[in-house]
Amino acid sequence: MNVTYLGHSCFHLEIDGINLLFDPFITPNELAVDIDVDAIKADYILVSHGHEDHVADVERIAKNTGAKLISNYEIVTWFAEKGVEGHPMNHGGQWSFDFGTVKIVTAEHSSMLPDRSYGGNPCGFVITTKDKTFYYAGDTALTLDMQLIGRMFDLDFAFLPIGDNFTMGLDEAVIAAEFIQCEHIVGMHYDTFGYIKINKDEATQKFKETGCTLHLPELGNSVQF
Ligand code: NI
Ligand code: MN
Question: Residue 212 has what pLDDT?
């Protein structure tokens, strides 16, 4: 599976020719100026919560590509009014799509859409495809609920926020990796703005000490799983 980092918490995944995009925040991201937002392929856009740094380019990319939005009921309803087609879900629920199964899991955070509309509860996703199972945590604190993910799924890799201040930081992400029983972690939600700048070498080293690998691909680059 090919995973490409598009900055902040945005990733593009290609699963057997189907394109998944998570939390698109590209045009407002000064670090992502080299990414051509109109060249991004998407069949599905998955959105973890309503904050601007996760939804900024949803409408533009959905209209360019015809991608279907997968998110909670409130966010899907909000985007439907803008003409974006979506599949509404909510916590604990699971649905099978053509690329695999999506389960919505808890994230401890807040959620408000850019016009201050209620965004429902923030979430994470556990996705099971033919070949791989992975967890996209969204913006979240460390929670004991993550142990349930480790118990219910055999994860091949996971996306965890590591930037601190708005989400859990590095030390808690190391504990999260243990809770979800996953050895390959892709870091997200770091370096984009002042509050969340990290030392990448220190981060990589901290995970290494616990036997985990922290993947921090350069913006625009890919990792294979
Ligand atoms: Ni947020
Ligand atoms: Mn955020």
Answer: 97
